[in-house]
Design a protein that fits this description.
heterodimer, A: alpha+beta, Aldehyde Oxidoreductase, domain 4, 3 domains, 7-stranded mixed sheet, 5-stranded mixed sheet, B: about 325 residues, 5-stranded antiparallel sheet, 12 helices, about 30% helix, globular
Chain lengths: ~725, ~325
């Protein structure tokens, strides 16, 4: 099915199941520990051995020698696949850094061997006996040094754009902000590490793994292992967090496959936590410059956003300018996104790539502008909202945008009017208190997505798609969609996900998963309805499906009477969508208290008001948004991969050193969804929300800290050492 | 992790003898630090002597009105003990500022005193570290040193003792009781228990080979108001950037010990004497010989501001 025009009124406008808060249908499995995660799939292959990955001890250079003798003689060892004895694996379209690169080391903790043994403990102990010597190479690890010479990422409009005469307009603007901001490298730090069980059956390979994008990864494995993709099965039904870190095949899958081949047995690998920071991908650090010029009434006349980041290839950095053409008006505009070549581990997508650090800079610059104007920061954003057009893309139409409502309704709900506008003036005892606001924008793309639906002769429905549920609630929204479309109760639907033997879906990434995969299931269900209609002799497209029956005029059929049927289809998205910017919008609010003595910051309240079209399942959508707010709080306050610029690696590579917020750090969070529909998005008029929740709250926290203390810090995270000397004098 | 053998000792003296006479042996109590270090092969003992069944899990009153804490009393039990809460509140607060409930259930009193530094380079066996491998060099001094020590450090090592409990014990002038392999006992003031690194950062305490902690003795209560303020980046759960244990009397005199700044809980009687003159005077005296790095110099003003906050609270 092709979605080739904005949706008119359809069955989802009369929905009984879609759009209703629905507990996760996989919830009982998860809370009882029976949802099988990759490393726990003891039943899928007999005689599993254990693999342990050895990471390179240098960031750049060449392996001189590996002494494997002692490790090979260690108890329980079955096989060792080592870089000095194995040719490098091939690359794929999805990986920039080699996953097993032979003697050449291109980043710290790159996999250089896998030890396979009878037990986990034996594999780990034997790995400790491998002695590796290196010839160190020269590397570039310092973004600040590399940035000045970094070229533009590309000449695409998202990387380089000029509208009007930015320089002249900025120079002439009566009120202006010109500031630089930095954001650090960040780790996904998902709960479940990379994990794979690999098993060979002749030329056929199966990997039971933890991965967001099944088909990408099947194709990538085929490239990397130089084999026919038809001989590869990838299965990933449950995923313990990914955040973009599992969009791609990682070394666990590659080394498990190589280890299993060498050991002639299935091999299981769960990556040790200390390797999860340098062996993995990460969010790139950014350096940003924001220049905004405005008239005295607040209207922006010039807005310039320049960004610098780096990556191992010198390509595909962190484009922090993405939201800037979308959010605010201004006739004269400049976008420039530069990428330097760095020899750190591979930078790649992490939840709202580009937009998370972009909002941390842009939305603070807007706060700075509001202060210079003497204007309320909510009002400044509303004044510069552009109903009806995309500011940085005048030829693009807007689908549905309600940013002003998000900000106004949010301000009311949050008690914004009680905010003391003068910074540093709200003090109770040792506590300085403040409130901050930020707008949020995240694109809402859609991708082709397929599904198969099988109706049993007992009227049960099974949905099969290689779509994944990375904790987002996919199982439930797909069941809701199928139940709604087929007119069946929710418990008549079973959903099977994450298996590459199922139809190819959009997968989970880029906030496209929910909207795309529900559309794909809808397409397959429409095909099934037509099969039923054909079999029972009615026009399915004209009929209403409800309560297990199809009704047309005065006639009615029990759909069970059609017998067992299987339909398969994909939703593809037509050219018409290219004329539109389909985005999601939010108003984010935060309240903090800062210890006037020590600078310790406590977030006391957070609110997100979201405009994201039809919310398929408010319960799981809320979880997505508040999870994003937690991650944004981490980006604002604590998360920071410390680059050791001498050795070229992230030094704090464990969860004691890389501090992500936990429950006790997070206060009361509210999330409100506007009751909006976006007919340009999909037939369900729905958009993603998983990344909207992280776009803006970090800046709201930063702005609240400024409001509390009167201290502006532009280098994230906002740790107390950066402003201790500017806190109020002590007695 | 290397393979190892394991035994449960029958008495403290026997445990001490077993560790002294077995090559590569170590004590294990709660294991909350040692097991992690073994997994990373930072510690590679070949034999473990388990001391958890030696009856050293009680808190007893001493004749002079203090407390004698068995080495295997858990952090949870110690912090919740009615006498500790009543008379040594600084200790309860310090313990509860450390780790998580689960870890405190398992962590022992003696083991907590022996927990090792959290320097990122100590934790990465690819990196040079004089503490892990004497003579190897120190990657931290010119590296990622934000968390590390500002005083009492050396050109060999700038690691900190990372714990909280011992900082309160230093303010209380606790005494560590031990048994040696020959069965003799000795008492070591907690002030002398942790060593400054000097040229031998791998030697961290005054304990001799095989010497085992049996008890920690708390002197008679000090009275006064008790404070423990632990400042960290993540408020819920993290090692201290700076912590301050203070016992302040109503006349403004008292004691103050700093954590997260040195190889040991950092206190000087000369600095204590400055308490009536305010936080700046105390910190100026206590940190007179500080040698911070560019990254961690903030710890000294942070120590001052943290203490100032305590003194302000005291006044209100």
């Amino acid at each position: 099915m092709e979605f080739n025009a904005p949706a008119g009124e359809n069955l989802f406008d009369r929905a009984k199941i879609v759009g209703k808060s629905t507990p996760r249908i996989d919830g009982p499995l998860k809370v009882s520990g029976r949802a099988p995660y990759a490393a726990e799939r003891h039943d899928v292959a007999a005689n599993q051995a254990y693999g342990w990955i050895v990471g390179a001890g240098i960031a750049k250079g060449r392996i001189r020698a590996m002494d494997l003798d002692e490790a090979r003689r260690a108890p329980g060892v079955i096989a060792i696949v080592a870089a000095t004895e194995h040719e490098p694996v091939a690359s794929s379209d999805f990986n920039y850094a080699p996953l097993f690169g032979g003697r050449e080391v291109s980043h710290y903790h790159q996999a250089i061997a896998v030890v396979v043994a009878e037990t986990f403990e034996q594999a780990r102990a034997a790995a400790g006996l491998i002695r590796t010597s290196y010839t160190n190479g020269e590397g570039t690890f310092d973004l600040k040094k590399a940035a000045p010479g970094a070229p533009l990422a590309s000449d695409r409009p998202s990387d380089s754009a000029k509208i009007g005469d930015f320089d002249a307009a900025f120079a002439a603007a009566p009120v202006k902000v010109d500031e630089r901001y930095t954001t650090p490298d960040e780790a996904h730090a998902m709960m479940e590490p990379f994990a794979t069980i690999a098993a060979w059956d002749g030329p056929k390979l199966t990997v039971w793994t933890s991965n967001q994008m099944i088909e990408w990864s099947r194709q990538a494995l085929a490239s990397i292992l130089k084999m026919d993709a038809d001989n590869i099965r990838v299965d990933s039904p449950y995923i313990g967090g990914g955040f973009g870190g599992k969009l791609f095949v990682r070394s666990d899958a590659v080394m498990a496959a190589l280890g299993a081949k060498a050991a002639k047995r299935p091999v299981k690998i769960a990556m040790q936590r200390p390797l999860m920071f340098n062996n993995a991908t990460h969010r790139h650090a950014t350096m940003q410059r924001l220049r905004i010029g405005a008239e005295r009434d607040g209207r922006i006349v010039a807005i310039g956003h320049e960004n610098w980041s780096g990556n191992i290839t010198g390509e595909a950095g962190e484009n922090a300018t993405l939201q800037t053409p979308k959010l605010y008006s201004g006739a004269n505009r400049l976008i420039a996104n530069h990428i330097a070549q760095l020899d750190l581990p591979e930078g790649n997508a992490m939840r709202a790539p580009g937009e998370l650090p972009g909002h941390l800079a842009l939305e603070v610059a807007m706060d700075e502008l509001a202060e210079k104007l003497g204007m309320d920061p909510v009002e400044l954003r509303i004044v510069n909202d552009t109903q009806g057009m995309v500011p940085g893309e005048p030829d693009t139409k807007l689908s549905d945008r309600n940013l002003t409502r998000c900000l106004r309704e949010g301000a009311d709900m949050f008690g914004w009017s009680k905010r003391e506008a003068r910074p540093g003036r709200s003090r109770k005892g040792r506590w300085l208190t403040g409130m901050g606001v930020a707008a949020g924008y995240r694109a809402a793309p859609t991708m082709k997505s397929g599904a198969r639906v099988r109706m049993t002769d007992r009227g049960q429905l099974v949905v099969e798609t290689d779509m994944t549920d990375i904790g987002t609630g996919t199982y439930t929204i797909l069941a809701q969609t199928a139940a709604e479309t087929m007119g069946l109760p929710l418990d008549a639907v079973r959903v099977e996900l994450g298996d590459s033997s199922f139809p190819v879906s959009a997968g989970s990434g880029g906030q496209w998963g929910a909207a795309s995969s529900t559309a794909g299931v809808y397409a397959a269900c429409v095909a099934l309805r037509r099969m039923i209609g054909e079999k029972l002799g009615f026009d399915a497209d004209a009929a209403t499906f409800d309560g297990g029956r199809a009704t047309l005029g005065v006639e009615s059929w029990s759909i069970r009477d059609a017998g067992a049927l299987t339909a398969e289809d994909s939703m593809t998205f037509g050219e018409f969508k290219k004329d539109y910017d389909v985005g999601t919008y939010a108003g984010h609010f935060a309240e903090v208290k800062v210890d006037a003595y020590t600078g310790e910051t406590y977030i006391t309240r957070m609110l997100a008001v979201c405009d994201a079209g039809r919310i398929l399942n408010p319960l799981s959508a809320r979880s997505q948004v508040i999870g994003g707010m937690v991650m944004a709080a981490g980006a604002a306050l604590t998360e920071d991969l410390h680059v050791d610029k001498r050795f070229g690696f992230f030094a704090n590579h464990d969860l004691a050193g890389y501090e992500v917020p936990v429950h006790a750090d997070i206060p009361h969070q509210e999330c409100v969804f506007l009751d909006t529909l976006d007919p340009v998005s999909t037939p369900l008029k729905a958009k993603g929300v998983g990344e909207l929740g992280i776009c803006g709250p970090g800046a709201a926290v930063a702005n609240a800290i400024y409001n509390a203390t009167g201290i502006r810090v532009r280098d994230y995270p906002l740790t107390l050492d950066k402003y201790l000397d500017r806190l109020p004098a002590i007695a | 992790m290397r393979s190892f053998t394991y035994e449960r000792a029958a008495s403290p003296a026997e445990a001490a003898r077993a560790v002294a006479t077995t090559q590569g042996a170590k004590f294990i109590a709660g294991g909350t630090n040692l097991i992690d270090l073994m997994k990373l092969e930072i510690e590679t003992p070949t034999h473990l002597v388990d001391v958890q069944d030696l009856g050293l899990d009680r808190v007893e009153e001493t004749e002079e009105g203090g407390l004698r804490i068995g080495t295997f009393v858990s952090n949870t039990a110690l912090s919740a003990h009615p006498r500790v809460r009543e008379d040594y509140a600084v200790l309860t607060r310090a313990i509860q500022a450390g780790a998580s409930g689960q870890l405190r259930n398992k962590a022992s009193t003696g083991g907590n005193l022996l927990q090792r530094t959290r320097c990122a380079y100590f934790y990465d066996t690819n990196m040079p570290c004089n503490k892990r491998k004497p003579g190897d060099g120190c990657a931290a001094i010119d590296g990622f040193s934000r968390q590390l020590g500002v005083i009492g450090t050396s050109d060999s090592c700038i690691a900190t003792y990372p714990g909280d409990m011992a900082v309160a014990m230093r303010a209380l002038d606790a005494v560590v009781e031990t048994v040696k392999p020959d069965g003799t006992a000795r008492a070591i003031p907690v002030a002398d228990f942790h060593r400054l690194w000097g040229d031998t950062p791998h030697i961290e305490t005054a304990l001799e080979p095989g010497e085992m902690i049996t008890h920690v003795r708390l002197p008679t209560p000090l009275g006064g108001q008790h404070f423990y303020h632990k400042v960290r980046d993540r408020r819920s759960y993290a090692y201290a950037l700076v912590s301050v244990a203070a016992v302040i009397q109503s006349d403004g005199t008292g004691r103050v010990a700093f954590g997260g700044v040195a190889p040991k809980p950092w206190r000087s009687e000369a600095a204590d004497a400055q308490l009536p003159n305010g936080a700046a005077a105390v910190v100026r005296t206590a940190f007179a010989d500080a040698r911070p790095t560019e990254q961690n110099a903030f710890k000294i003003p942070l120590a001052e501001r943290t203490l100032a906050g305590i003194l302000a609270e005291m006044r209100s």
